[in-house]
């Protein structure tokens, strides 16, 4: 037995093809996810060089950012989006990669589709031209976002040039309070480490509170690793992971599955493995979280207040707070629960899975969206939508006054018709609250699905625990 290794070390070392003197490595990539935004130039580059996709069977593409979430029977109205999606249709056809077109039941946000299909597996390397590829780390998959020129490199060679990351451990121990979800955990972590806290690291999430999360919850946590600056997030695979994967269309079957499980069981970090940075959080300290500003680290407990520039010591931070307050149209010292909202968005690769919709429906049931609020629920994939409808969740939402949409990225970012008007304030289950993220001049408050419903029905940010 050699020195104890982390989960990250094990996956990394088993994928290195070549190492240069300066530490730069060539690593093998097991799986490649593709969407319409970051792939057109990559496919064009291949074509111009007269190259083929090296492993079409290891590549899965799906349109998600530019698809409309209303009636799709007449195609895509906006020209830019139509070209983008048509280009992916054509590239998929020409190269023979796996493809779920817009009207396929399996279409959805790429990070929801991968796990659903069993394309995402423990111990593998996975990339996508998308920063939230970190989501897949919930399975013990080394998954990270890459740029378009790297997408081309992976399509052509199934390898990638990368420097190894440092190991960071975020340990959340103890029981979560009722009403506190994976989203609150991840927001609390980012609030603690800051958006640069994970720079240069792969974060491994561990501790009893992380283990207690469902696979959906673990995906929510890993999804936002990138918002904490990390290259990727990882959670050790366990029985829940194996159970989730078993029987999925692209997962190994029968004896191959059993064999895979034996290997997956060897992946968790060894006792005594070295981490370059360790952060410990007590689950009991976490209550529902909301962002007030324009960075995901601008997070406060829902019973808190909007901060003042003078709360920060650093002059740079003071300026940033002042600017955020102005953009968000907020006054320092306001109770978070007194912030009135106009729109609610439930969806995205952070919180658009079945469990998120179930949690939202529990609060929505028998209640009504406030008169001045417009709210929508956007399932993360066609399969999530189908499952939700089989459980009658859509009826609960429609009855309460929510819109029930087709799957896609939707209002997580304004690349399709779903967007905020200037000055509109939105309670959103997505992952980014940057200026203009949900539409020019739009104001975003990030929170959990249950908290989003609480805001929808009361018309202002509200501690969901008060609704019971
Ligand atoms: C469009 C895409 C490249 C982008 C990303 O990389 O994350 C998007 O998904 C986002 O969430 O901002
Ligand atoms: S849902 Fe949002 S965060 Fe996720 S891939 Fe789409 S745009 Fe990016």
TrEMBL record:
Q: In which pathway does it act?
A: Amino-acid biosynthesis; L-leucine biosynthesis; L-leucine from 3-methyl-2-oxobutanoate: step 2/4
Q: What is this protein called?
A: 3-isopropylmalate dehydratase large subunit
* Single GO MF descriptor: metal ion binding
Its annotated function is as follows: Catalyzes the isomerization between 2-isopropylmalate and 3-isopropylmalate, via the formation of 2-isopropylmaleate.
Q: Cofactor note from UniProt? A: Binds 1 [4Fe-4S] cluster per subunit.
Cofactors (names): [4Fe-4S] cluster
Question: For binding [4Fe-4S] cluster, which residues are annotated in this chain's numbering?
Answer: 349, 409, 412
Q: Which domain of life is it from?
A: Bacteria
Residue runs in coiled coils: none
What SUPFAM superfamilies does the annotation carry? Answer: Aconitase iron-sulfur domain
Indicate yes or no for the key word Chaperone. Answer: no
InterPro entries (alphabetical): 3-IsopropMal_deHydase_lsu, Acnase/IPM_dHydase_lsu_aba_1/3, Acoase/IPM_deHydtase_lsu_aba, Aconitase_4Fe-4S_BS, Aconitase_4Fe-4S_dom, IPM_dehydratase_rel_enz, IPMI_cat
Which gene is annotated as encoding this protein in its UniProt record?
A: leuC
The root-end lineage is: Bacteria, Pseudomonadati, Pseudomonadota, Alphaproteobacteria, Rhodospirillales
Q: Which HAMAP family match?
A: LeuC_type1
Q: Which reaction equation describes what this protein catalyses?
A: (2R,3S)-3-isopropylmalate = (2S)-2-isopropylmalate
EC numbers: 4.2.1.33
Q: Name one GO biological process term.
A: L-leucine biosynthetic process
- Aconitase/3-isopropylmalate dehydratase large subunit alpha/beta/alpha domain location is 9-459
Top-level EC class, please?
lyase
Q: Name one Pfam family in it.
A: Aconitase
Q: Which UniProt keywords apply?
A: 4Fe-4S, Amino-acid biosynthesis, Branched-chain amino acid biosynthesis, Iron, Iron-sulfur, Leucine biosynthesis, Lyase, Metal-binding
Assembly and oligomerization: Heterodimer of LeuC and LeuD.
Q: Which family does it belong to?
A: Belongs to the aconitase/IPM isomerase family. LeuC type 1 subfamily.
